[in-house]
Amino acid sequence: MALTLVLGGARSGKSALAERMVKRMPMPTTYIAPAVVDPDDADFLARIELHRARRPGAWRTIECGTDIGGALTSSVGTALVDSLGTWVAAYGGEDPDVPALLAALAARTGDTVLVSDEVGFGVHPATEVGRRFREQLGDVNVAVAAVADQVLLVVAGRVLSLEASPW
User: Fold this and answer.
1) What residues form DSSP beta bridges with 80?
2) Of 6, 13, 154, 164, which one has the fewest beta carbons inside 10 Å?
3) How far apart are alpha carbons 31 and 22 in whole angstroms?
């Protein structure tokens, strides 16, 4: 079982990279979508449709909201989680259940690829809600990276492999 974390900024190509990676992994494949979708957010709905159009029809999709642990546990074979940022946002400002996520990842027997936004490179959020989200997602990324076999950073469609810290 391999665990890969794919990080990148908005529109960096991280999801497309993760999808290409997963297509080369053993089937069956489960696409885990933790987003809670506002039906009035036309931009987000359009982005979801682009993601759906790229996915092979044989992939199973689980739209799980905050229950990412349950979705990972019920997945057989390869799992692709896209994305941890939408998972954190689904908590609506509450702390995400990182221990449950890590336990579900440890229990998996298939390969797992997780996509997440790298929010630490951006503009300092102007609101308390934005700062809290950045801090929560940063903490989630650090926790998942600590248990990942591989961490990749995608910038402008280019991929950098991030090594574990020697300290």
Assistant:
1) 31, 113
2) 164
3) 10
